[in-house]
Amino acid sequence: MRVLGGIFGVMATVGLLAGPAAAQGGPTRYGEPDKVKTPSEIAAEKEAERAYQRSLGNIPERQKASDPWGTVRSEGAPPKAAATAPPSRPKTKSADTKPESGAK
């Protein structure tokens, strides 16, 4: 029984370690020749290219630039003058000031 459990343990360990190693494939091979396309695949690619070119024609040539601050400021308006001064307070005579009197 112990031997059988030990064998399964070793097999499980080898399997867990072999999985990631098998996932590391070799480098992709560039320069491999493309597979030959059927006439229907070629026609489908040409039609897709024509549809793409037609869709590009639907895009306006020049779109209006968005200006999120356009409602806040305008380029043609002159700058506003400083805020108006607060209303002046009427002058009051305080108790410690004496009215000026003529020379005696």
Topology:
Blueprint: H1 2-23, H2 39-57
Please, could you describe this protein's structure?
With 104 residues, the chain is mainly α. It contains 2 helices and no strands. The protein has helices at 2-23, 39-57. The chain is flat and about 120 Å long.
* CA-based shape: flat
- Low-confidence stretches are none
Mean pLDDT across the residues is: 74
Largest sheet: none
Q: Strand-and-helix sequence, N→C? A: HH
Radius of gyration from CA coordinates: 44 Å
Distance between the termini: 134 Å
How many individual β-strands?
0
Query: Given the structure, what is the number of helices?
Result: 2
- Work out the oligomeric state of the chains in this entry: single chain
Helix content: 25-40%
Structural class: mainly alpha
Strand content: under 5%
Overview features:
104 residues, 2 helices, mainly alpha
Short description:
With 104 residues, the protein is mainly α. The chain has 2 helices and no strands. It is flat.
